[in-house]
Design a protein that fits this description.
The protein is mostly beta strands. It contains one helix and nine strands; from the N terminus they run E-H-E-E-E-E-E-E-E-E. Strands 1, 2, 3, 4, 5, 6, 7, 8 and 9 form a nine-stranded antiparallel beta sheet that branches. A hairpin with a 2-residue loop joins strand 2 (16-22) and strand 3.
Length: 98
């Protein structure tokens, strides 16, 4: 798997406020008001807790991983690689699409 440099530069250091998983959508909400939405298939593997910080995003084909500074990680399978990851800032403006 390879580092998603663009997304990692944007989200590294952001603190997780909460997570939400409904059907095929997994969202991470950050304390700065931004949120990361992933369209996924299957389940979310791994655990995360509020207050943890994002270290980096790793992606290969449909595999997508978020590594946290505390050593934990979450792993998902993207529904449509290249068009399943959305990051919006607190105003709702798109920061990343991939």
């Amino acid at each position: 798997m390879g580092l998603n440099r663009k997304l990692s530069r944007i989200i590294a250091g952001r603190t997780i406020e909460r997570k939400e998983h409904k059907e095929n959508v997994f969202c991470l909400y950050f304390t700065d008001g931004s949120f990361l939405q992933l369209k996924i298939k299957g389940e979310v593997l791994g655990e995360l807790s509020p207050g943890q910080k994002v270290h980096r995003a790793i992606e290969k084909d449909e595999q997508f991983v978020i590594d946290l500074e505390e050593g934990n990680r979450i792993e998902v399978s993207l529904e449509n690689p290249g068009a399943s990851v959305y990051l919006r800032n607190k105003e709702g403006s798109l920061e990343y699409l991939g």
